[in-house]
Amino acid sequence: MKKVVTFGEIMLRLATPGYLRFVQSDHLTATFGGGEANVAVSLANYGIPVEYVTRLPQNDIADWCVSELRKHNVGTQHMIRGGDRVGIYFLETGAVARPSKVVYDRAGSSVAEIVPGMINWKEVLKDAGWFHWTGITPALSQGAADTCLEAIRTANELGVTVSCDLNYRKNLWTYGKTAAEVMPELVSGCDIILANEEDAEKVFGIKPEGFHAEHTGGEVDAAEFESVCQQLMKRFPRAGKVIITLRGSINANHNTWGGCLYSDRLYQSRRYDITHIVDRVGGGDSFMGGLIYGFLAYPQNDRQALDFAVAASCLKHTVYGDFNLVSVKEVENLMKGDGSGRVLR
Predict the structure, then answer these.
(1) What's the distance, CA 89 to chain centroid?
(2) Cα–Cα distance measured from residue 220 to residue 213, given in angstroms and rounded to the nearest whole number
(3) Domains, the chain, with CATH or none
(4) Who contacts 136 (Cβ-Cβ below 8 Å, separation ≥6)?
(5) Distance from C-alpha of 90 to C-alpha of 100, rounded to nearest angstrom
(6) DSSP secondary structure letter of residue 17
(7) Mean pLDDT in consecutive groups of 10 residues from the start of the chain, 345 residues
(8) This prediction's pTM
């Protein structure tokens, strides 16, 4: 099987323990995370050969980060070194009516200072079958956006499948360009587009009539998003599949979770009721990792690929940290209906 390549920023994650607020905590738990790295770890767990590409400084924190990725069987041979710092994000986990908070400290990070020409994309992608990026990367800087476009164009030239997760983060678009200005050129090179309930609206102004993500009450109708998928495919005709994750937020600890996929028609997944969320950060990335695996493992079955992605990301909500540390067997067991949580002996 040809390898999957992902490109983006990985950060040091510093989180308060349990449900403590920042002002209450006297220590923080350190792990690593970032959209495209999270996807890479998921795929490696499923036995897919994967390479993660980024730019990191030459220091001990960066070495620690690389070591963590290698521990999870993620390839790092095409990473480049330079710049001064690893980006950081701080996480305060919410509970019930209090939402989680993320504070970024990533300005001036090594990957934010990347420019085209630093990475030899023809070398990186020459034996790849898939390239994945997210909307977080072009939000970091003009250089990161241009480098991402460079990668997409190279992948298109080489016949490599390209997927993107729109992943809109309004607090990151601060360098003078908006997502609406930058993203269309990048997304036009994509074969597969993933978004959540709000991404298409925030980036492209495309939304289902009367939908407001903050007022779902746990109920999100997948059929409402068929028109969103069709509009995205009309605007970006290269895309053969559009997928929407559907999160119904009852409170910070209790969500419903599902998805829909549009290709030749609309496919709707089973809806999961996640009543005790351990960690929802990385939920969308775990969905994307499951989706890529599903398309590779079940190439003629879009419904099965969607079901794998939804089950994989449902399990991610039970795993602490950004990475989804579950196996194919665990995901397939949940797909078959085994969600009892009984002790395995």
Answers:
(1) 16
(2) 9
(3) 3-334 (3.40.1190.20)
(4) 8, 9, 34, 35, 36, 167, 169, 172
(5) 11
(6) S
(7) 95 96 96 97 98 98 98 98 97 95 95 98 98 98 98 98 96 94 98 92 85 56 84 96 94 94 93 94 96 96 97 97 97 86 57
(8) 0.94
Distance (Å, whole) CA 293 – CA 326: 13
pLDDT of residue 236: 97
Q: How far is CA 288 from the centre of its chain?
A: 6
Helix/strand/coil for 165: strand
The token duo for 242 is: 């559009």
Q: In what order do the strands lie in the sheet with 11-15?
A: 29-33, 11-15, 88-92, 101-105
pLDDT value at residue 260: 95
How far apart CA 131 and CA 163 sit, in angstroms, is 6
Buried/exposed 269-279: b ≥16 CB within 10 Å, e otherwise: bebbebeebeb
Write b or e for each residue in 94-105: b if 16 or more Cβ atoms lie within 10 A of its Cβ, otherwise e: beeeeebeeeee
Residue 280: Cβ within 10 Å count: 21
Query: What is the per-residue pLDDT for 197?
Result: 79
Cβ atoms 308, 290 nearer than 8 A: yes
